[in-house]
């Protein structure tokens, strides 16, 4: 078991740094010249969606990163990804979030709009049509699981698909979907066998231009990114080859996607946490009160020490847990019985530690920390958000407790 960055991680981060300097920086400069807002504080169009110029700048970064093989290091090599394990991805994610801050560089590493472990289970026809272009950043996707009436209680969803010959007909509404406005292909989870528990759901790939699909209203959230909305499926017909995995695999595949996002919290929170800590230390050194830098006030020193302690412990948890998960198979279907507890430990410890870090980062700056869309203010809102999507903190504690109580040793 290793928690150390491999040589290929070092090679990747070196290439990523060059990409930030040579590709991302000029695109960022160009975007700043438009009246469109920034990647972390975009303006919106009349329908509440991310301003097209910001969206297009992100897409250009994704396409270029895809062409250079930087966009999908987490995907397996047999589908064109980098084949990195979870410890390697922690190091990659930490580097990307720390170096990019809130800039356009974040778009260069696949996020929820990109290729994921679940979509790798698609049919050969879907691989050619959607998976390969996802890996190269030519198209984007959205994971359509949650409904307005059902979030945590996934098995209670009402969107359903029924067979019609060799096709499937999908009906239902999905809500709170990231990238709902723009996705070229949708990963839709729907009921195919009501009452069959964890085998009741299936995952389908639905083309973004499919008849019967409507992209409804934007749902503005505290993220203020113009990316979240609702989708309606009215008699949307898809052929059998659009089923991901087997019929009945939907719950396991949805969990594979969700677990991917949960594990990503380790590197994300470590990267942003260290970025906020470095900014807080620099600010405390130069801001004066009573004729002395506030860094000389013991109470401010303790704020910095608390941030350091939170970043350090959450990062260490992530690295150790991801190393254990690399051995168990983080995306195996069926998943090893010890894995859910470890995955939820990564998410809850990182989300909650990062919330304290972001809160303290605001406090160290006083009023300056509350300036709208400043890095500290924006990341405070992001940190608050993190404790809800991909499973709330309460759902993580349920999974941790289930893991403890199941084990005879505990
Ligand atoms: C910005 C944003 C982006 C999102 N992106 C996506 C996306 O791309 N795709 C997607 O499918 N979904 C997405 N979601 C939805 C997200 O995954 C859900 O909001 C989340 O799973 C919680 O579901 P809910 O909001 O319905 O809350 P609920 O499930 O209604 O929970 C409400 C409260 O009850 C608690 N609770 C519920 N059930 C239990 C239980 N069994 N035990 C203990 N406590 C419980 C919760 O912890 C919470 O505190 C996104 C949400 C947001 C805010």
From TrEMBL:
InterPro entries noted in UniProt: Acyl-CoA_dehydrogenase (IPR050741), Acyl-CoA_Oxase/DH_mid-dom (IPR006091), Acyl-CoA_Oxase/DH_mid-dom_sf (IPR046373), AcylCo_DH-like_C (IPR036250), AcylCo_DH/oxidase_C (IPR009075), AcylCoA_DH/ox_N (IPR013786), AcylCoA_DH/ox_N_sf (IPR037069), AcylCoA_DH/oxidase_NM_dom_sf (IPR009100)
Domain (Acyl-CoA dehydrogenase/oxidase C-terminal) ranges: 248-405
Annotated GO CC locations: cytoplasm
PANTHER family, alphabetized: MEDIUM-CHAIN SPECIFIC ACYL-COA DEHYDROGENASE, MITOCHONDRIAL (PTHR48083:SF2), MEDIUM-CHAIN SPECIFIC ACYL-COA DEHYDROGENASE, MITOCHONDRIAL-RELATED (PTHR48083)
Residue ranges of domain Acyl-CoA dehydrogenase/oxidase N-terminal in the record: 41-138
Family membership: Belongs to the acyl-CoA dehydrogenase family.
Required co-factors: FAD
Alphabetic keyword roster: FAD, Flavoprotein, Oxidoreductase
GO-annotated molecular function: acyl-CoA dehydrogenase activity; flavin adenine dinucleotide binding
Residue span, Acyl-CoA oxidase/dehydrogenase middle domain: 142-236
GO terms (BP aspect): fatty acid beta-oxidation using acyl-CoA dehydrogenase
Keyword Cell division appears in the UniProt entry: no
Protein name: Acyl-CoA dehydrogenase
């Amino acid at each position: 078991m290793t928690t150390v960055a491999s040589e290929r991680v070092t090679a990747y981060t070196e290439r990523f740094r060059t990409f930030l300097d040579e590709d991302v920086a000029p695109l960022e400069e160009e975007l700043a010249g438009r009246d469109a807002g920034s990647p972390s504080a975009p303006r919106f169009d009349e329908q509440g969606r991310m301003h097209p110029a910001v969206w297009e700048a992100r897409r250009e970064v994704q396409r270029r990163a895809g062409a250079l093989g930087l966009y999908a290091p987490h995907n397996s090599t047999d589908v064109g990804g980098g084949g990195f394990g979870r410890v390697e991805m922690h190091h990659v994610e930490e580097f990307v979030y720390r170096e990019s801050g809130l800039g356009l560089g974040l778009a260069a590493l696949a996020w929820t709009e990109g290729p994921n472990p679940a979509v790798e289970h698609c049919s050969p026809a879907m691989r050619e049509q959607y998976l390969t272009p996802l890996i190269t950043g030519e198209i984007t996707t959205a994971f359509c699981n949650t409904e307005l009436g059902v979030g945590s209680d996934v098995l209670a969803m009402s969107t359903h698909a029924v067979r019609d010959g060799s096709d499937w007909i999908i009906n239902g509404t999905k809500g709170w979907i990231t990238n709902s406005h723009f996705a070229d292909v949708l990963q839709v989870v729907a009921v195919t066998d009501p009452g069959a528990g964890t085998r009741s759901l299936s995952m389908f790939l639905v083309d973004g231009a499919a008849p019967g699909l409507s992209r409804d209203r934007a749902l503005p959230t505290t993220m203020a990114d113009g990316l979240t909305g609702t989708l309606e499926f009215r008699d949307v017909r898809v052929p059998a080859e659009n089923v991901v995995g087997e019929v009945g695999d939907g719950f396991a595949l949805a969990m594979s996607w969700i677990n991917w996002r949960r594990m990503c919290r380790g590197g994300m929170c470590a990267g942003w946490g260290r970025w906020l800590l470095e900014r807080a230390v620099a600010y405390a050194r130069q801001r004066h009160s009573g004729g002395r830098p506030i860094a000389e006030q013991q109470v401010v020193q303790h704020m910095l020490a608390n941030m350091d302690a939170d970043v350090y412990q959450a990062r260490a948890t992530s690295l150790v847990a991801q190393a254990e998960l690399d051995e168990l198979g983080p995306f195996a279907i069926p998943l090893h019985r010890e894995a859910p507890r470890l995955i939820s430990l990564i998410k809850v410890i990182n989300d909650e530690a990062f919330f304290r870090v972001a809160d303290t980062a605001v406090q160290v700056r006083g009023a300056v920390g509350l300036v709208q869309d400043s890095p500290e203010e924006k990341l405070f809102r992001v940190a608050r958000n993190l404790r809800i999507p991909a499973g709330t903190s309460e759902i993580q504690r349920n999974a941790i407790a289930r893991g403890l109580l199941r084990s005879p040793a505990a």
